């Protein structure tokens, strides 16, 4: 029995008693008087469960009161963007985009252990992201690392339904009902095109019980693609992508990446290879991103390093004196003071625009609504979003739309949203999806459901 099959058997053994008690209900009372042999079997079952629990102690880590891996060093979980965090010459960038096309054809994400040397440029960049956000921390490198994957979306891609989600160890979630999120989630944009990433101030509910997250949403963030920009946020945040009208900063085509979401499904089903091939080759308007989740104290189950067979197809590790090596060191945070903004790659606090949405609709605003859920879209996210021209108005509020210059200011590519918490129609909230709503048809979601708990984690970028 291979390691993954053994993990699945152990997890199912522990999960089985709970699922049976939920399904069988009162039948337990009827079985009580059927014989003393039941007591013997029960004792054997308890022993088996205890053994399984002992063996799983190295697989499922202890969690703290917030559902995070316990005993890990504190990391900065605030949402931040770094402009020009990855600076590559045109030739190397084009090569990296081709690499993304190759990786995009995979069904799942890849693992780069913190204690393992990288074998190619992409692995070195994934490790650099890990190093950037753990610098100065005492990390157990044998149980920490970077989960990474790539996405390529071209303007010709058919827009799929938005898939908002929480990043979790899907193996533990599906087989045991334990929601374990990465310490941090990140997006590194390799082009200027496509839909913005949406972050919602709603954290992973215990056991992925989404109804615990129902209620008003008070804050969100939109991050527009910008070549070399790096976005980092709390790994427990709900996130996805928003296809907005053409004309917003960094959004060259509202179809490019419109049906994608950062962090939770990988390759977009059967279209992954085809879409990636076009974008990675340098097609204008392609949305290309490198996604990295930073895991501390836990290696997600059922995720492996990238197959050796792909290495000949990817850009090799650069020489120490090459510009790509310098870019990798820069991405890792070498010389980063964590202050300031702009082309030096530091946290771009000045790119944050506070937009406050009141109860009264703002002229030109968009009511963004999408169903989401693991396996079936049972839940609904509703957010009123300001009109794209506001994204170019420094210090503007939603009611200042008429006074704003309609030309977007490209430096302002990250937008902080604040909602008033109202409960009326059109307010920002998470609730149950309407039963009459037709299920959103997502090829990637269908593939994810078909794979089951033994499949590799699938990712969708946005």
Automatic annotation (TrEMBL):
Locations of Acidic residues compositional bias?
19-47
Q: Where does this protein have compositionally biased stretches of type Gly residues?
A: 256-280
Q: Where is this region: Disordered?
A: 1-53, 248-280, 438-462
Residue spans with biased composition (Low complexity)? 8-18
Protein name, please? Fe2OG dioxygenase domain-containing protein
Upper taxonomic lineage: Eukaryota, Haptista, Haptophyta, Prymnesiophyceae, Isochrysidales
């Amino acid at each position: 029995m291979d390691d993954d099959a053994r993990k699945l058997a152990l997890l199912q053994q522990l999960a089985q008693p709970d699922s049976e008690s939920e399904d069988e209900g009162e039948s337990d009372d009827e079985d009580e008087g059927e014989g003393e042999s039941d007591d013997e079997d029960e004792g054997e079952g308890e022993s088996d469960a205890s053994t399984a629990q002992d063996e799983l102690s190295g697989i499922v880590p202890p969690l703290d009161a917030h559902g995070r891996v316990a005993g890990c060093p504190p990391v900065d979980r605030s949402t931040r963007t770094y402009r020009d965090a990855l600076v590559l010459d045109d030739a190397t960038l084009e090569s990296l985009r081709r690499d993304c096309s190759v990786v995009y054809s995979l069904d799942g994400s890849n693992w780069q252990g913190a204690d393992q040397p990288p074998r190619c440029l992409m692995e070195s960049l994934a490790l650099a992201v890990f190093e950037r956000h753990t610098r100065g921390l005492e990390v157990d490198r044998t149980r920490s690392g970077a989960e990474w994957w790539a996405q390529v979306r071209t303007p010709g891609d058919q827009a799929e339904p938005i898939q908002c989600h929480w990043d979790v160890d899907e193996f533990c979630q599906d087989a045991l009902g334990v929601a374990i999120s990465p310490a941090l989630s990140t997006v590194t944009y390799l082009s200027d095109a496509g839909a913005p990433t949406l972050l919602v101030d709603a954290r992973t509910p215990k056991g992925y019980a989404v109804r615990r997250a129902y209620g008003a949403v008070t804050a969100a963030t939109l991050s527009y693609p910008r070549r070399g920009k790096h976005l980092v946020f709390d790994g427990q945040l709900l996130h996805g992508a928003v296809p907005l009208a053409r004309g917003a900063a960094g959004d060259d085509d509202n179809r490019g990446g419109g049906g994608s979401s950062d962090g939770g499904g990988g390759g977009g089903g059967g279209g992954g290879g085809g879409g990636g091939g076009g974008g990675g080759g340098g097609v204008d308007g392609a949305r290309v991103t490198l996604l990295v989740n930073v895991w501390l104290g836990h290696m997600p189950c059922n995720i492996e390093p990238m197959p050796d067979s792909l290495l000949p197809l990817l850009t090799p590790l650069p020489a120490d004196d090459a510009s790509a090596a310098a870019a990798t060191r820069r991405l890792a945070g070498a010389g980063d003071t964590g202050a300031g903004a702009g082309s030096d790659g530091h946290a771009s606090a000045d790119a944050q625009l506070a937009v406050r949405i009141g109860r009264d609709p703002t002229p030109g605003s968009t009511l963004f609504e999408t169903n989401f859920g693991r396996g079936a879209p049972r839940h609904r996210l509703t957010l009123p979003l300001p009109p794209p021209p506001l994204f170019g108005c420094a210090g503007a509020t939603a009611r200042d739309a008429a006074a704003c210059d309609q030309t977007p200011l490209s430096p302002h590519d990250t937008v902080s949203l604040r909602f008033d918490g109202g409960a009326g129609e059109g307010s920002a909230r998470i609730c149950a999806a309407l039963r009459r709503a037709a299920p959103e048809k997502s090829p990637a979601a269908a593939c994810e459901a078909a794979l089951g708990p033994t499949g590799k984690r699938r990712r969708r970028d946005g």
